[in-house]
């Protein structure tokens, strides 16, 4: 249950920082570098098509077994991009040859668009 | 007993000798040569062959009321087997008939299975609830081959399973055709690498002794499957008067599990009581409910955090000292680590990176003392590599952890001064605060993707918990991977509430093991629930018919992510590494086009079923309807389309 068959893709990957908002990738105000403009709708499709969902879930909610939560409030784009291109943990690399900078910007726009979790649902209290 | 007991092999042997003698005194050199050739096993002419194998019909015994199989059933009854699981096969037709007729189909009762893998995995799940093995009958070559993967899982999981395989040893007595294909010279060779012991009894007294011995060996830690190969003749032939005089069922005395050597226990206690940051890691540590209490007592004595790796139900999930969620960090900061029945001690204290260049590094601090207590050190085979990488520990006790805990606890208590106890209590308070904070984080994490479709595994787990928490529940299996949400959200407090995994990670364990465990829970009035992976479901789905046929109450909730998702991720890893085809990981790894209708499959086998459910708001009502069915004593299945993990 806890251990078997776990493929840890990106456990050491991304923490959760900046504020989320919008369909079209506004840069988080406290990010060290602005995120490029991206299309969140296309980013959501790419998030599934190129396999991000496999470890992080379709809503980027993460899993203790495979990969951390990416949204809402994703890491600054620069940090995320750096890790995606050259991961240091178990995550496979996504070079520009397979995910272009523009596609990554779309994916980031999708992450920014993920709404905050609801207040603790009654079932979890 | 038969009035004219005749041994089939003896009877036919004497017939052959008579036939040969009749020819020896006869005519030509050619005939004599033919006779010699025949006596040596060469070809015989048709008339001679007929005389050998078809003696006067009026002299041929055609019935018996005391076949060997009856005595075999007496032996099985002495071992108090409740059930024997089997897919029927002619190589064990003799004992099969003896079980259902002579034995009254009670203790053992015959469980009709649709695949030998199901039979063995049912026995695997059953043993983890019952604490003793179920018998399994396997047909000749093909049945044992079908069973092999499930036998391997039980072997890796250190679970006793009692295997009985039919075979036809005397080649001259085999029916032409299929019986030859289903016979084998050394049947046990197929599974000898991953069973603990096997035998091929040559007589009924031999069977009795080996049957008791096999049970004893299977039940001695490390527990594992054992195999007896049953000759067809031994099952079917009448019990002769001579054999009857020698029949005896030996007394069974189970071997007391081995305890750690006293000096090693004392040294372990010294290290643990003086450690600043000790961590207890438990995998298959608690064989019984008592073992779980002992582990809690040790943790509370030391005020040390426990990391439960989940091979068994070791530590109550909500206990302030259960820190399984932060295990990696605790291990990294530990100065002493006690590993109890760890499958992989090396992997517990080392990190491994599966990248283009594979690397590993210790995660522990230099100088951290490692203590291992494991019955695994008592029995290691060479071919299959489940023993994992060699761990460099400081104290290794080749012993059963549960049997060793009482002396270890006592040794620790003796070493604790009042001052030391106060210091440990302070440590315990900090750990309890950290655990409370961790539980809050877990609840917050579960809220993400709460309304998503496909349904999040956190939502599935929370909805299910809401419906079963007032029952005397038992999570009998969890195939697939739901990100450990049940153990994080539910209150696991009793040993039977969690049974661990498959052992060998051979897919196809989940459904049959759940059915077997649910059968053991049935007489205790427990509510059995399983989280059922879709890939696992499809290996041998006939087990759902077995559950319906034998009226085994079990709620199965599908974790249907429509994929062999582990393999999706592996393929993605390769694609990313090769900088190509990152959108192709679903080829060969997903279960779509068409989507499988699991509810329909289950319904077709007599199981109440609903789904597929894609709206999380529909879960609660569906679970309630299914629970009502289970409470009537039947299996029920709810198919839920889920997030990958």
Protein architecture, described:
The complex is a heterodimer of chains A (125) and B (645). Chain A has 125 residues and is mostly helical. Chain A has a single domain (7-115), classed as Cytochrome Bc1 Complex, Chain D, domain 2 (Orthogonal Bundle), CATH 1.10.760. Helices cover 30% and strands 0% of the residues of chain A. Chain A is built from four helices and no strands. Chain A has helices at 40-49, 52-56, 77-85, 101-113. Chain A is globular. The relative contact order of chain A is 0.27. In chain B, the strands form four sheets. A six-stranded parallel beta sheet of chain B has the order 2-1-3-4-6-5, with helices on both faces. Chain B has a five-stranded parallel beta sheet with strand order 8-7-9-12-13, sandwiched between helices. Chain B has a five-stranded parallel beta sheet with strand order 14-15-16-18-17, with helices on both faces. Helices cover 43% and strands 14% of the residues of chain B. Chain B has 25 helices and 18 strands. Mean pLDDT of chain B is 93; it is low at 1-51. Chain B has 645 residues and is α/β, with parallel strands linked by helices. Chain B folds into four domains: 8-59, no CATH class; 68-246, Rossmann fold (3-Layer(aba) Sandwich); 262-442, Rossmann fold (3-Layer(aba) Sandwich), CATH 3.40.50.1220; 447-641, 3-Layer(aba) Sandwich (Rossmann fold), CATH 3.40.50. Chains A and B meet through helix 2 of A and helix 17, helix 18, helix 19 and helix 23 of B.
């Amino acid at each position: 249950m806890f251990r078997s068959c776990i493929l840890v893709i990106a456990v050491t990957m991304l923490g959760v920082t900046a504020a989320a908002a919008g369909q079209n990738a506004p840069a988080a105000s406290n990010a060290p570098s602005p995120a490029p403009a991206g299309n969140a709708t296309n980013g959501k499709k790419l998030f599934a098509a190129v396999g991000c969902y496999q470890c992080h879930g379709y809503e980027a909610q993460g899993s203790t077994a495979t990969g951390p939560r990416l949204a809402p409030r994703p890491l600054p784009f620069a940090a995320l991009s750096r890790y995606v291109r050259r991961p240091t943990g178990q995550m496979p690399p996504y070079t520009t040859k397979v995910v272009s900078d523009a596609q990554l910007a779309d994916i980031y726009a999708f992450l920014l668009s993920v709404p905050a979790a609801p207040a603790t649902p009654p079932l979890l209290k | 007993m038969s009035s004219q007991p005749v041994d089939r092999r003896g009877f036919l042997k004497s017939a052959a000798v008579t036939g040969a003698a009749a020819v020896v005194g006869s005519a030509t050199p050619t005939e004599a040569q033919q006779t010699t050739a025949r006596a040596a096993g060469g070809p015989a002419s048709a008339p001679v062959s007929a005389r050998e194998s078809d003696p006067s019909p009026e002299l041929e015994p055609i019935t018996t009321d005391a076949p060997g199989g009856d005595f075999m059933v007496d032996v099985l009854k002495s071992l108090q087997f409740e059930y024997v699981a089997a897919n029927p096969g002619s190589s064990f037709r003799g004992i099969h008939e003896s079980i259902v007729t002579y034995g009254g189909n009670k203790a053992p009762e015959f469980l009709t299975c649709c695949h030998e893998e199901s039979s063995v995995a049912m026995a695997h799940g059953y043993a983890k609830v019952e604490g003793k093995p179920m018998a399994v009958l396997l047909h000749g070559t093909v049945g044992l081959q079908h069973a092999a993967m499930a036998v391997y899982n039980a072997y890796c999981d250190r679970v006793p399973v009692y295997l009985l395989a039919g075979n036809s040893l005397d080649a001259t007595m085999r029916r032409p055709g299929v019986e030859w294909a289903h016979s084998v010279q050394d049947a046990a060779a197929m599974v000898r690498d991953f069973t603990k012991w096997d035998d091929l009894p040559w007589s009924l007294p031999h069977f009795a002794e080996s049957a008791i011995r096999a049970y004893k060996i299977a039940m001695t830690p490390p527990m594992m499957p054992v195999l007896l190969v049953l000759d067809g003749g031994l099952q079917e032939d009448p019990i002769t008067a001579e054999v009857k005089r020698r029949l005896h069922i030996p007394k069974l005395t189970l071997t007391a599990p081995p305890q750690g050597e006293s000096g090693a226990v004392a040294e372990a206690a010294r290290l643990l009581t003086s450690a600043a940051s000790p961590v207890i890691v438990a995998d298959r540590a608690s064989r019984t409910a008592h073992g779980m209490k002992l582990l809690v007592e040790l943790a509370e004595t030391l005020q040390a955090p426990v990391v439960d790796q989940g091979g068994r139900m070791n530590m109550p999930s909500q206990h302030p000292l259960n820190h399984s969620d932060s295990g990696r960090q605790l291990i990294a900061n530990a100065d002493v680590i006690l590993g109890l029945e760890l499958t992989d001690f090396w992997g517990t204290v080392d990190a491994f990176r599966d990248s283009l260049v594979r690397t590993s590094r210790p995660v522990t601090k230099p100088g951290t003392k490692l203590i291992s207590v494991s019955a695994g050190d008592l029995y290691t085979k060479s071919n299959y590599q489940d023993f994992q990488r060699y761990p460099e520990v400081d104290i290794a006790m080749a012993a059963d952890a549960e049997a060793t805990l009482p002396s270890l606890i006592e040794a620790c208590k003796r070493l604790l001064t009042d001052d030391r106890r106060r210091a440990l209590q302070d440590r315990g308070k900090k750990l309890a605060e950290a655990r409370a904070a961790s539980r809050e984080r877990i609840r917050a994490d579960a809220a993400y993707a709460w309304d998503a479709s496909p349904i999040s595994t956190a939502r599935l787990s929370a909805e299910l918990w809401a419906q079963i928490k007032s029952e005397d529940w038992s999570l009998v299996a969890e195939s697939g991977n739901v990100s450990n949400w049940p153990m994080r959200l539910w209150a696991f407090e009793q040993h039977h509430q969690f049974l661990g995994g498959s052992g060998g990670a051979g897919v196809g364990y989940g459904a049959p093991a759940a059915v077997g465990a649910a059968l053991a829970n049935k007489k205790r009035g427990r509510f059995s629930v399983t989280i059922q992976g879709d890939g696992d479901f499809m290996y041998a789905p006939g087990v759902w018919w077995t559950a319906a046929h034998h009226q085994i109450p079990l709620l199965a909730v599908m974790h249907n992510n429509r994929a062999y998702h582990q393999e999706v991720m592996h393929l993605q890893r390769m694609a990313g590494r090769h900088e190509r085809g990152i959108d192709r990981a679903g080829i060969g790894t997903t279960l779509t086009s068409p989507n499988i209708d699991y509810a329909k499959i289950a319904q077709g086998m007599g199981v109440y079923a609903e789904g597929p459910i894609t709206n999380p708001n529909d879960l609660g009502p569906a679970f309630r309807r299914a629970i009502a069915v289970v409470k009537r004593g039947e299996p029920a299945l709810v198919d839920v389309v889920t997030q990958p993990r």
